[in-house]
Amino acid sequence: MRIPFGWLQNYVKIDVSPQEACLHLIMLGFSDAEVIPNEWECLDNFVVGRATEVKPHPKAPHLKVVRVNLGYTDMTSVCGAPNVVEGGTYAVALPGARLGGGQTVSRAEIDGVASDCVLCSGWEAWLDDSKDTLLELDHDLVPGARLLEALGLDEPVIEAEVTPNRGDCLGLIGIARELAAVFGKELIIPEPAPKYCDADTSEVVSVEISDVEGCPRYGAIALEGVRVRSSSASMRARLRLAGLRPINNVVDAANFVMFETGHPLHAFDLDRITDSSVIVRRAREQEKIEAIDGKQYNLTPDDLVIADAARPIAIAGVIGGKNSEVSDKTSRVLVEGAFFEKSLIWRTSKRLTIPSEAAYRFARGVDIEAIPYVLARAAEIIQEDTGCRVARSRVDVYPQPRPARYVIASPKRINKLLGTSIPEQEICDYLERLGFVVTPGRELDISVPTRRDDVEAEADIAEEVARLYGYDRIPPAEDRACRSHGKISQNMLVSGYVRRVLKGMGFTEVVTDTMVSPETLELFNMTGPEVVEIRNPVGVNASLMRTSLIPGILDVLVRNEYRGEEGVAVFEVGKVYSRTEDNFIEGCHLVLGLSGLREARAWYGRSRSFDFFDIKGVLEAVLADFGISVNFEPDGPAFLHPGRSALVQTDGGELGLIGEILPDIASHYGSKRRLYVAEIDFEPLVQRGLVARRMRQRPRYPAVKRDIAVVVPKTVLDMEIRSVILHEGGDLIESVETFDLYEGRPIPKGKKSLAYAIAFRHPSRTLKESEIDEIQQKIEMRISKELGGSIRKQSQ
Amino acid sequence: MDLHNEAVKIREAAAKAIQACRTTEDIEAVRVKYVGRKGRLTQLLRKLGDVPAEQRKEAGRILNETKEELTSLLTSRRSEIEESVRQQVRASETIDVTLPGRKPRLGKLHPTLRVLDEIVNVFIGLGFAVVEGPEIETEYNNFDALNFPPWHPSRDDFDSFYVAEGYVLRTHTSPAQIRVMKSQDPPVRVIVPGRCYRRDTPDASHLMSFFQIEGLYVDHDVSLADLKGTLAIFAREVFGPQTKIRFRPHYFPFTEPSAELDISCLVCAGKGCRLCKHSGWLEVLGCGMVHPNVFKHVGYDHRAVTGFAFGLGVERIAMLKYGIADIRTLYENDVRVLNGL
User: Fold this and answer.
1) Residue B225 touches partner A, C-beta closer than 8 Å
2) B209 and B296 share one domain
């Protein structure tokens, strides 16, 4: 909302600077109130000038040489406009001024005559679109005055945010009322007194409301003998400061009253209303209207329209129709002042994307009881300008007058809610300043002004009191801040721990989009009925909720590769989403991603790339930390490398997957690297939590250590050999480590050598060499029999 | 034979030989030669029996003293040599301590979540318990129960994402208020961090998905002053002890009275600069007293309890703390940026 500061002073006389007024407005709830830079500073080098002499140009017949009086000096201007006359008052652009067309004025010689300055058209002076004729200024303007000041455009303007509940402050009187209340000043409301003639509006036009819910009240007043033309300079200046474009004296008057009161008005050309009949109704299916913005709109029965006997003549509360627009041929005008249901107006203006000043205000609510006032005020202003006749009686269709609203409030409860001790008298005083009528008693019986439909209950009253008392005067009470005990959630506790562990392992945390494209899900074969779809996505690229964190982490790996990062290690703990027929499910996953170099070139060693076992080791460490034991089963979805992927299995089922991204997909993403990912369901970790494990007795008897080296076919898995060792060793096995893997000479082709360090230990006695020998033999026998391996003798 | 003279000679010769030793092997050779089992002094001691009885005691003393002296000379020379060998070894083991160390990889947590953790910890310290709610919410919890009128703009398809009839990607963390209050009786003091969604076109200060933290405190006689006190502590803890706060009236459907909290500008401390658009204040969160209609929706007696609620945007605070001008930077996931914060 723009607040021209001089205009505001018509309604409240406050003796503070505009900047100071802004601070008060901010503390009243009008965020970001500030004095905006003057938009008319482009008029800096323009002054008022009077033509004292107009002579033909000696060489160019279509030009004139004009002597211009600027008060303090005279200048010469060569001018081609047809309407330049001696004694005329014009806008003069001095050297250095920038004209509306963009060029800068400088002294010039035009066909041998020096020209010092430019007499301006409205377009050149930034004020309107007329290019061919000079802008004629009022004769009482003093030559030499700065145009900015002469036109009243030098007034400071405040811009402030009005929250959607305060439709009553979308007019200057509303803002003035707030300031008057804070400063304890009188609010000055103009009292319109047009001279009425004996005409009766209802005789010249009939009004019918067919949708009373959409339009509970419709008022109108007829004006006759209107001369439509430009408004006065001061009216135009006012509207320009408010950010509105002057149109003509009728439309400008309606806009002026809207800006003054916050109540939008609309003016129809009465002679263009078919059968002089006005009907407020819902639009019919496929009805169309051409609006005054020149565009065609398709209407639906969700839209409220003002119609005449034949067609819609306005989209109610949003925009007028071209077919009934006031033009310079108009002499009879019907001014409409109505109340429309907020939600209807809001929906229509949003659907048709017409963000009009009127729709903005109707959608936030106007004062239903102000309709007679705003009609009289508009009639008065139009009459002042045109001397038109104003019908004595208005049309006012208001089938069910709204009852006044009362709120009961107790000063004690208000103080309790605010944490203050404001005396009752002061509370009443604040409320009365804002126009509430307070009847004191055991509790306050408060009548709410009709313009304040946001005030419904005691809490609303408390806010009004707090605003005038001052939010900054409420004492901060910190002593009560510590009365209960705080607690972190299990999910945040566990994820916080794991996130910090991974950070220590060199992983950078990322946060990726939860909304993904169908293309991505198809690429990863993740489509299906369980995918949650957004019905109204902004674009197809973010139309589905992710079911896996892998596509996102892949994107991060590749983007960072593009940026030239040599080694990338990233992770995310985040939500995944799915649905059943009638339920939505949100899960939490952990994803790891690696690409590029693990070790950069360094003086102490060679560079090395990340590989499968780097990511596997990290995952194993994290799971082991939680005491979760898993198996890695060679298998995986199609987007992983078939020979380099595994399912992560626990006793309870599948926990996740790990592997190298299929090189085809990696190159589809534009990567030149091997990309490794692992994703697990994080919920089991959250459920298990950071449990304290019971201390284990330190071993009292020595361990017996044996190394076993085997040569097996390449297809035999480490896991298979281990399971033989563990099976045969039983409880006596303390640990098994695979410490060597070798292929190549002298190992035969198609085979590989693996070596295991096994520690045996008994908790309550020293093991005999002979029993270990026996176990070792069994292990060796099974490896050769079942896995086709042979034993390489190895010293201990 | 004069035992005494002999002993002196041996002592002199041995002392000279000891001085000449360069290695522990040299020392050992000298020891064997003079005081070993077949060494010269040992042999002399064996001849002690031949000495007349009256001189034997004196001779014995001299020989023993000589042996002790030589042994001690040997020992000290040996330590000298050993020390010098040790020194040589150490010298040969010298490394260039100015070479860079082996770099362990060290990651970073995401700035948004670091700030989220930090804020959550402040409120845990103030007695708030952390709860989390779903991102796919019912329209009822997200709007109706929070007193949004049926025509409120944010319900619209233009502003909120819908995934099914009556289900919306929550537009704020506030619906968790409803869940918490429906599941427990007062007093309630919770903090709800989480992801939210709005149908905004991404730009320097808007994203379609962002993090919020919701706070809620319901008890007897909770007042606006309590809210102000709690948030004053929050502001000092998160932004530094010198931070000042300002409460401004505002409007939210689910609080009444409503307010916005500003903190004194982190860059200019209130003097006015570009960050605060020369106002000296930065807006950080919205808050207010829980609207009686919200209490009615969850079945609390709005005459018996009062409460406050607040909701803050985590990214905004992360941007202020880390000096990030464009919110989208946070989610480019550029490790060069992330690891530098």
Assistant:
1) yes
2) yes
- The pLDDT value recorded for residue A484 is 67
- The mean pLDDT value of chain B amounts to 91
ipTM of the complex in this document: 0.81
pLDDT at B45: 84
- Contact between A452 and A168 under an 8 Å Cβ cutoff? The reply is yes
Q: Do B36 and B122 fall within a single domain? A: no
The C-alpha atoms of residue A524 and residue A553 are separated, in whole angstroms, by: 13
Which SS3 state, helix, strand or coil, does residue B145 take? helix
User: What residue in A sits closest to B131 (Cα-Cα)?
Assistant: A489
* Domains in chain B, number: 2
CATH number for position B140: 3.30.930.10
pLDDT digits (tens, 9 = 90+) for A58-96: 888 888 899 999 888 889 999 888 888 888 899 999 988
Provide the token pair at B195.
Answer: 């992801």
Phi, psi of A401 (to 5 degrees): -55, 140
**Could you tell me if A550 and A486 are in contact, meaning their C-beta atoms sit under 8 angstroms apart?**
no
Tokens 């009289």 sit on residue = A376
Together in a domain, B34 and B132: no
Q: What is the DSSP secondary structure assignment for residue B322, as one 8-state letter?
A: H
Backbone torsion region of residue A110, taken as left when φ is above 0, otherwise alpha when ψ lies between -120 and 50, otherwise beta: beta
Q: Are residues B56 and B197 in the same domain?
A: no
- A722-780 pLDDT per residue, tens: 999 999 999 999 999 999 999 998 899 999 999 999 999 998 999 999 999 999 999 99
- Measured between CA atoms, the residue of chain B closest to residue A36 is B277
Among the partner residues A27, A165, A483, nearest to B251 by beta-carbon distance? A165
Query: Six-digit token pair at B208?
Result: 């379609």
Half-sphere CA count of A293, side-chain side, radius 13 A = 12
Please state at what angle helix B111-125 crosses helix B224-239, rounded to 10 degrees. Answer: 130
For chain A, the C-alpha Rg in angstroms (whole number) is 42
pLDDT band at residue B28 using 50, 70 and 90 as cut-offs: very high
pLDDT (average), residues A419-448:
94
The pLDDT of residue A795 is above 50: no
**CB-based contacts of B8, cutoff 8 Å, min separation 6:** none
- B105 within some domain: no
Q: What is the distance between the alpha carbons of residues A287 and A785, in angstroms, rounded to a whole number?
A: 88
Contact A117, A158 (CB under 8 A): no
Instruction: Report phi then psi at A294, rounded to 5.
Output: 85, 0
Cα B269 to Cα A572: distance, rounded to the nearest angstrom: 36
Identity of residue A173: I
Is residue A111 very low, low, confident or very high in pLDDT (cuts 50, 70, 90)? Answer: confident
Burial class of residue A545 (count of CB atoms within 10 Å of its CB; 0-12, 13-18, 19+): buried
Among A541, A519, A543, A544, smallest CA distance to A531 is for A544
B122 shares a domain with B85:
no
Instruction: Identify any residues that bridge with A733 across adjacent strands, giving them in sequence order.
Output: A760
Chain B, 9 to 48: residues with Cβ < 8 Å from chain A are: none
> Which pLDDT score, from 0 to 100, does residue A234 have?
82
Are residue B38 and residue B138 in the same domain, yes or no? no
Cross-chain residue pair A507–B330, CB shorter than 8 Å: no
Mean pLDDT in residue range A168-196: 95
Write down the pLDDT at residue A796.
41
Domain boundary among B64, B92, B120: B92
Q: Which of B314, B316, B59 is nearest to B192 (CA)?
A: B314
Closest approach of chain B CAs to the CA of A25, in angstroms?
10
Residue in B106, B157, B225 closest to A536 by CB: B157
pTM for the full model? Answer: 0.76
Domain that holds residue B313: 111-340
For the segment A236-261, what is each residue's pLDDT rounded down to a tens digit?
Answer: 889 999 999 899 999 999 999 999 99
Q: How far apart are CA A619 and CA A676, in angstroms?
A: 12
pLDDT category at B44 given cuts 50, 70, 90 is confident
